[in-house]
Amino acid sequence: MNVDQKFGLALLIFCLVFWFFVIPTQVAGMREAIYPQSIIIWIAISSVLLILKSWKGASKKILHKSQNEKGIVRVIAIATLCLVYILMINFLGFFISSFVFLVILMLSFGIRDWKILITIPIIFLLFLYILFEKLLVFPLPKGIIF
Amino acid sequence: MFENIAAGMSMVFQWDNVLSALFGVTMGMVVGAIPGLTGAMAMCLLIPFTLYLKPIAAIAMLMGISKGANFGGSIPAILFNIPGTPEAAITALDGYPLLKQGKGGKALKMALYASTMADTMSDFILFFLAAPVAMVALKVGPPEYAMIILFSLVIIGAVAGEDFLKGLIAIGFGLFLATIGLDPLVGTPRFTFGSVELSAGLGLIPLVVGLLIFSETFKQIEVGVRGKSLESLKKDNLDQFQKTTDPSNHRVSFAEFKHCLPAIFGGLGIGAAIGAIPGIGTTVASYLSYTRAKRASKHPERFGKGALEGVAAAEAGNNAVVGPNLIPLITLGIPGNLAAALILGAFMIQGLTPGPLFMQQYAPMLYALFTVLIISNVFTFAIGNIFVRFARYLIYIPKPILYPGIMIFGIIGSYVFRNSLFDVITMIFLGVFGYVLTKFDIPLIPILVAFILGKIFEERLRQALLISRGSILIFFTHPVSLIFLLFIAVTIVMLGIRGIRRRKAQY
User: Could you give the number of structural domains in chain B?
Assistant: First the structure.
């Protein structure tokens, strides 16, 4: 199986789950369900065609794209960090959480100079403070502590 | 019409409109000149903040970004052979060899002249064509409207990526995401899974920022953001640019400009025609314009080795798309490309819905917008002349500092739209979703366009079916609807045949 076939198959499973389980429970009324069902049919037909299209000569195709495993782990870590940061805003407020978030991000991107790690986030957050809190008078989220 | 134009003019010349256009153009040039960043990214980041602006100022800022970035992208293309935007790759074909000959300044000036000239003329095409097209669009009923949208979606899906089927899958995703929230006709919740926040539907801004900014940022994180720009910097080229002593190498003479005029006008024609068709976009226009100029030239052998007409043709082609691209947006509410889709988003944030009635209801405002487009071109020309001297230093901005800033801006943008941290979390998930999709070469722009058009498409489709009491024959009995259905069928068949031929050629 090549990448396209795996993707097509995964989409078909997604379509079946939506057709039999999600649409019946999440859409009220038979008539109202027709439009979402039509979209599912659209995706399913495209997926079947994608599978068929990549069937012939599959062995000649590269079966897997060269994946940068370390890179993917880095993406997962940063995405998780983003979620943690957003949750921390509720406790620490926008500015403190953002400062920590920016420092960790820059560290993970390879910056090791402590002057840059401290000054850039402070300047950037000061700019945001003036822009939002003072000029636009838009309060950025406050946390329980700050 | 003339009263509307006069009323529009009186609305334009206010400080906030002019400053917004100026800010947009400058911002666009800066972003366009930084490889890896695009005008669309800047538009995505700034859309949420258009909430604070009046409609004309908001659109002026976004259009300014688009115009500025179109030119800005040509700067690193000429100076470093690193296109700042995809369409600028064609500019680099001759711009970079010109730099090698010590004529970098000349190439940059020609790019500026050709892009602002073609852009301005394309805005006049919009100015004169929008009203007649809107008159025709007024006669469009729900079945016709639904089929026109479907046709546009199929075209956008077809041209957005390498694989037509993946484009169609992307359209399906976009239409599906648009169904989350309340049913537009009966008001019952759909796919909300009991969440109050999801009842209002997915926010446009979280989707835009997630799919276009965060997925791109995640891609950059995967390959590593450690000082790439410095690595790719070719210092020799900078020296070549700076050490040229002959002043004629830094300017375009009248004779040279006259020599390039046919290439500019050719690019204008091609760019304007392509711009009016949804989905095809600036890169194709740039390429076709360049190819036409090469064929028409008495010295085609010079192309690719430093022909000034090559730079002029490429820049004229991609900038001539800008004005006509807004014709389907303003008259039918259908965005022709990503920039137009984002402008449609900004209109929606302002509570305005472009479409057939828009030209009637807001005619003075639209003429004001057209005027702002011309003003933005004047700014592009004026700022561009100064900017080319300093733009080369932008490539020094280290990405490890740039990307965290972009991420924070994206997060704030998602938050300010509805004051909701839920939107920010949604945005992160959509960013991961977009990143995963790009691993399978699924194009993201059709998802966004289909999401934006999804609600109106569903409404028109279901209205048509209500009129016909559930019979789909209504789409075959209305002539305009039937014509567009045939267009859709022909497009799918042609793309299918092309796909089969390609596969046969591969194996």
Answer: 1
Count CB atoms within 10 A of the CB of residue B382. 13
- Structure tokens belonging to residue B299: 């010295």
What integer is the mean pLDDT of B314-339?
84
- Residue B190 backbone dihedrals phi, psi, to 5 degrees: -130, 135
- Nearest-angstrom CA–CA distance, B431 and A75: 11
In a domain, B491, yes or no: no
Q: What is the Cα–Cα distance from B102 to B147, expressed in whole angstroms?
A: 53
- The predicted model scores a pTM of 0.80
Task: Look at residue B298 and tell me if it is in a domain.
Answer: yes
CA dist B80 and A40 (Å) reads 46
Q: Where are the domains of chain A?
A: 3-60, 69-135
Between residues B231 and B267, the one the model is more confident about? B267
Q: Among B381, B379, B121, B375, which residue's Cα sits nearest to residue B264?
A: B121
What letter would DSSP give residue A131? I
pLDDT digits (tens, 9 = 90+) for B243-299: 555 667 778 888 888 989 999 999 899 888 888 776 656 777 888 888 888 888 888
CB pairs below 8 Å between A and B: how many? 142
CA-to-CA separations, A121 to A102, A104, A142, B21, B408, in angstroms, rounded: 6, 11, 18, 29, 10
Rounded CA-CA distance A59/B476 in Å is 43
Cβ contact, residue pair A36, B176, below 8 Å: yes
- How many angstroms separate the CA atoms of B28 and B26, rounded? 5
B444: three-class secondary structure by DSSP: coil
Cα atoms in the 13 Å half-sphere on the side-chain side of B468:
17
Question: What radius of gyration do chain B's Cα atoms show?
Answer: 23
Question: Which chain B residue has the Cα nearest residue A70?
Answer: B222
B221 contacts A78? CB cut-off 8 A: yes
Amino acid at A138: F
Residue B148: closest CA among B274, B270, B275, B279: B279
Contacts of A4 in chain B (CB under 8 A): 440
Which of B27, B165, B492 should we substitute to test contact with A (largest number of A Cβ atoms within 10 Å)? Answer: B165
A90 interaction partners in chain B (CB closer than 8 Å): 421
The Cα B480–Cα A130 span in angstroms is 54
Q: Alpha helices of A54-113 — where are they, by DSSP H?
A: 69-108
User: Does B265 reside within a domain?
Assistant: yes
CA atoms within 13 A on the CB side of A106: 23
Which pLDDT score is estimated for A123? Answer: 93
- Which residues of chain B have a CB within 8 Å of the CB of A136? 49, 52
Coil, helix or strand at residue B303: coil
Q: Which domain holds residue B333?
A: 2-139+172-447
Alpha-carbon distance of B85 to B353, in angstroms, equals 29
Check residue B238 and give its pLDDT: 54
Do the chains contact at A109 and B461, CB–CB below 8 Å?
A: no
**Mean pLDDT, range B318-325, rounded to an integer:** 85
Q: How many residues would you count in chain B? A: 507
Closest CA to B37 of B216, B207, B160, B235: B216
Q: Is residue B347 part of a domain?
A: yes
Sign of CA dihedral B98, B102, B108, B110: negative
Task: Specify the 3-state DSSP secondary structure of B181.
Answer: strand
Is B142 in contact with B467 (CB distance < 8 Å)? Answer: yes
pLDDT tens figures, A61-111: 444 455 578 888 989 999 999 999 999 998 899 999 999 999 999 998 888
